[in-house]
Design a protein that fits this description.
heterodimer, A: about 280 residues, mainly beta, Porin, 12-stranded antiparallel barrel, 2 helices, elongated, B: about 220 residues, Immunoglobulin-like, 5-stranded mixed β-sheet, 4-stranded antiparallel β-sheet, 1 helix, about 10% helix, globular
């Protein structure tokens, strides 16, 4: 308290841990049933952060993040990710119902067991929200993402092998409702336009529509990854049960529908369960 | 000298007799479970209130929560809001009974806040939105807050008739609906019991929310 009183900056440290599992029924992002591969993964994420409020209406957050995923069958997707993030939030007024705007930027390096996916990721977004009642809040925003691969493995002369050289822009809206003091349900809708990656066996239609191709041994020796332009619409549903003021158990479901060009449309579904701790 | 001594003895005896009356309140919810942090207030039916000397009250901030969460004070009481966290807080209230703001601060504010209107004052922190506290400002000096067992004792009450009522942050309906008449003119102790219907707690969730934000 004395340190806090002495200086204008009075930061609080926080630590987050999220452990759980998820199942993705279309990891390949493939259209044809024969190419679709699903798998379950154990996930563990941790973050250490620093928050400071320079005024009563502003907050700045800096964090270091680590994330890992370990898959049951497709070990090439096993991931360790290290990154950092920064956020600024401003409230337009006093009270929990005051509207707010936040700006976030994140950067991370993803190290996969399968080298083809190793990449650096950047994300930035702006979000505007408001608590509309004591138990309901909503927000919407825009975001941009950029992924830069570390490796280039072309398999077709003259065509890039950087299939994970991706960029996209999103708009999203989300809402959360407190059913009780312990249960919160929420949803998020997003539309993203930009580069996508789809892995299939050799497919002449996708080949003609793609602008980067590489072998993707993660799913088998006859699989190829293609980069295309596409639009992904995602619906997320979450239910969070507070175990205490510092912990919760969370159930999530995401349904993503991607349209890449006239003939390529695919669905993917992700179910997840997470234990979240905040200290 | 004997007369003076006699008068002093009479006054002491009378004061002792007055101070022995008490109202013992029990507050339960509609499932029969004890309700803590309910404020029980007794107002003399004849309106005759003699306000005692006011003493400062304290609403602390510890681990990013108001402590105590519910504080009952007499009208006119100055309240100090010390911040014992290692982060700054920005305490405010929009309540009609007391609108105030203590801009972002650490330590102890230089001036207390005087609560000069009876009513319920809801406290918040503009930095930590989940922080909610309540100051119940009583117009009567005869009040008490229930313990974890749902019991509260209003002691040292003069022997009169009182209108007794109860308030709780989660009370469904109005405080006025809880009024009871209690006659202490012939008894030294009266027991009063309420079974309150409570609504869910209205505060922003503090616990973390984890989600898998999507993929493409």
């Amino acid at each position: 308290m004395l340190l806090c009183a002495a200086g204008p900056a009075c930061a609080e440290w926080f630590y987050d841990v999220r452990a759980g599992g998820m199942y993705d029924d279309n990891l390949t992002r493939a259209q044809q049933a024969a190419d679709v591969r699903g798998d379950a993964a154990a996930t563990l994420a941790a973050a250490a952060g620093w928050f400071v409020a320079p005024t009563g209406a502003d907050g700045v957050t800096l964090s270091l993040d680590a994330n890992s995923e370990a898959y049951g069958r497709f070990h090439g997707l096993n991931l360790i990710s290290i990154g950092a993030g920064a956020g600024y939030r401003h409230k337009f007024g006093l009270g929990s119902a005051a509207p707010w705007v936040s700006v976030t930027v994140k950067a991370a390096h993803d190290d996969y067991r399968g080298d083809i996916r190793d990449s650096d990721r950047f994300e930035a977004g702006v979000e505007v929200g408001r608590r509309l009642s004591t138990d309901f809040d909503a927000s919407f925003g825009v975001a941009g993402d950029r992924r830069r691969p570390r490796n280039d493995s072309p398999v077709v002369p003259g065509i890039s092998g950087k299939i994970f050289d991706l960029r996209g822009q999103s708009v999203f809206a989300r809402a959360a409702y407190d059913v009780s003091d312990r249960l919160q349900v929420g949803g998020r809708l997003s539309v993203r336009r930009g580069d996508i990656e789809s892995t299939t066996r050799q497919n002449i239609d996708i080949f003609l529509a793609s602008d980067a191709i590489a072998a993707d041994p993660t799913f088998g020796s006859d699989f190829y990854a293609y980069r295309l332009r596409g639009t992904t619409k995602t619906v997320n549903l979450n239910a969070s049960w507070a175990l205490s003021d510092r912990s919760s158990i969370n159930f999530g479901y995401a349904l993503a529908s991607t349209a890449a060009y006239d003939d390529l449309n695919y669905l993917s579904r992700v179910g997840s369960i997470l234990l979240a701790f905040h200290f | 000298m004997r007369i003076l001594f006699g008068l002093a003895l009479f006054a002491l005896t009378a004061q002792t007799a007055l101070a022995q009356n008490e109202i013992v309140a029990t507050v339960l919810d509609d499932n029969g479970k004890p309700v803590a942090d309910a404020v029980v207030v007794a107002v003399p039916a004849d309106g005759g209130i003699r306000l005692p000397t006011r003493r400062d009250a304290v609403v602390d901030q510890v681990d990013k929560e108001f402590t105590p969460k519910v504080n009952a004070i007499l009208v006119g009481t100055p309240v100090i809001f010390p911040n014992h966290d290692n982060v700054r807080h920005h305490v405010y209230s929009f309540s009609p009974a007391k609108r105030f703001e203590l801009p972002l601060y650490a330590g102890v504010p230089a001036q207390p806040v005087v609560f000069d209107t009876p009513g319920v004052v809801i406290l918040g922190c503009n930095i930590h939105d989940w922080m909610v506290g309540y100051v119940y400002v009583s117009e009567s000096p005869y009040f008490a807050k229930t313990r974890a067992d749902g019991k509260a004792v209003i002691a040292d009450v003069p022997g009169k008739t009182y209108i007794v009522r109860v308030w709780h942050p989660q009370l469904e309906g109005s405080e006025a609906m809880t009024k009871r008449t209690v006659d202490l003119s012939a008894k030294r102790r009266v027991d009063v019991e309420w079974a309150l219907k409570l609504k869910p707690e209205l505060r922003m969730r503090r616990s973390p929310v984890g989600d898998h934000s999507g993929h493409y």
